[in-house]
Design a protein that fits this description.
Largest sheet: 6 strands, antiparallel
Radius of gyration: 36 Å
CATH architecture of one domain: Sandwich
Structural class: alpha+beta
Order of helices and strands: HHHEEEEEEEEEEEEEEEEEHEEEH
Low-confidence stretches: 37-57
Mean pLDDT: 87
Distance between the termini: 88 Å
Helix content: 10-25%
CATH class of one domain: Mainly Beta
Number of strands: 20
Number of helices: 5
Strand content: 35-45%
CATH topology of one domain: Immunoglobulin-like
Length: about 400
């Protein structure tokens, strides 16, 4: 008969055997469940399942085999990426075709809107449509803006309208700042429209920098409505235009050079519109660089290859120039320059002799093109290795071997 220590050893052995049997059973159940959910090439053994249970990493699955249709789609996608980038970076950022930015080619057109009458206090009156216009959104120091509104009934006919109040007020998000305001006088023109002008420099808003909101209350269709007009105004000019703008040939391109007397040095952003001799919008030229104090030059380039590709009727015309001093980490983020409306400079060049016809190059462009070309080349190689008998699809732009 076993002694007491012998009985204890026997009990421990039985317990250990039961625990081992339970672990093996549990591992088998886990392996079986895994097989039911996703069949594997071969069922894992109970021992390997037990290793996974106690933290061993599972064996990685082999990547799926790509079909010809998948590889063909990759080739087409990479080819599109390469060709699109190649096409869209032929010209530098500061000299772009007018067709790329049609919304920026007429900066001095009035802002026109039409919407159902908004009731004072909320809601709308759908039987009356309010039509509004404002001459501009950005105001440099000393500039003015005009507002107008008219009403129409549901049949599109003019509806009687009466302006009851108009208040222009500077917006602020700091309760400690004062909020200057001034009233505006809207006058009827006898044809159903009401008009008013705002010159912030004349009145309580003379020193305000930021957004000025004009709230106009009116009555139409037997109800009281409200409409809002917003403008961004700068009370100080950071620089002033000087001299006469001129067209010059430089580095194979045409540059329009403008003088600027800078009071506040910093990064200036200037944009001008270029028309051809027939008055057709041709290009958007821009300047974005740091200027020091004193007499400076702003150059608005028309890139040589853009001239060759677009073939505008010469000479060109620079018009509608606007700009600002960028104030980083500040609100508002800009101080506006006086706008130069209409024709600013007339060109003299009447032929493209001496104008370069080469694509723009930069370190960034070369780096991106090399990376996109590598992706395309690798995709074409995988497709050819899968089915050597089939011809590779032609590229939309890449030279052979890409």
């Amino acid at each position: 008969m076993p002694t007491e220590p012998g009985r204890r050893r026997l009990a421990w052995r039985l317990a250990a055997g039961v625990l081992l049997a339970l672990l093996v059973l549990l591992a088998w159940l886990l392996a079986t469940r895994a097989n039911d959910v996703k069949p594997a090439p071969s069922a894992p053994s109970a021992a390997s399942a037990g290793l996974q249970l106690f933290g061993a990493l599972p064996i990685a699955e082999a990547p799926p085999v790509e079909s010809r249709s998948q590889l063909l789609e990759q080739v087409r996608r990479f080819d599109h990426t390469y060709c699109s980038y190649l096409q869209n970076t032929r010209y530098p950022h500061e000299s772009r075709p007018a067709s790329h930015s049609p919304d920026q080619m007429q900066p001095n057109l009035p802002v026109l809107e039409s919407h159902p009458m908004r009731l004072d206090g909320g809601g709308s009156h759908t039987e009356v449509t309010l039509q509004t216009a404002q001459s501009r959104v950005y105001l440099a120091a000393g500039e003015s803006v005009s507002f107008s509104l008219r009403a129409q009934d549901s049949r599109g006919h003019g509806a009687p309208l009466l302006v009851t109040r108009a208040l222009a007020q500077g917006l602020t998000y700091d309760a400690r700042r004062s909020t200057p305001r001034m009233t505006l006088d809207f006058l009827a023109d006898g044809a159903g429209a009401w008009h008013a002008g705002l010159t912030p420099a004349h009145g309580a808003l003379a020193q305000f920098h930021g957004t000025i909101r004009t709230t106009v209350g009116y009555r139409a269709g037997g109800k009281d409505g409200v409409v809002l007009f917003d403008v961004l105004v700068s009370p100080v000019l950071p620089a002033r235009w000087s001299g006469k703008a001129a067209e010059v040939e430089a580095n194979g391109s045409l540059d329009y050079v403008l003088g600027l007397d800078v009071d506040q040095p910093g990064r200036y952003v200037v944009t001008g519109r270029i028309d051809d001799a027939r008055g057709q919008p041709f290009a958007l030229a821009s300047f974005n660089d740091v200027l020091g104090a004193g007499a400076q030059q702003v150059r608005l380039p028309v890139f040589g290859k853009l001239l060759h590709d677009g073939a505008p009727q010469l000479p060109l015309v620079l018009r509608d120039v606007e700009g600002y001093l960028l104030r980083e980490d500040a609100d508002p983020d800009r101080l506006l320059l006086p706008r130069l409306e209409g024709r600013v400079a007339s060109g003299q060049v009447r032929s493209l002799d001496g104008i370069a016809n080469t694509e723009w190059q930069s370190e960034e462009r070369s780096r991106y093109l090399a990376e996109y070309a590598k992706d395309l080349r690798q995709a074409r190689t995988r497709l050819q290795q899968l089915d050597p008998a089939q011809a590779l699809p032609a590229s939309a732009c890449a030279p052979p071997g890409r």
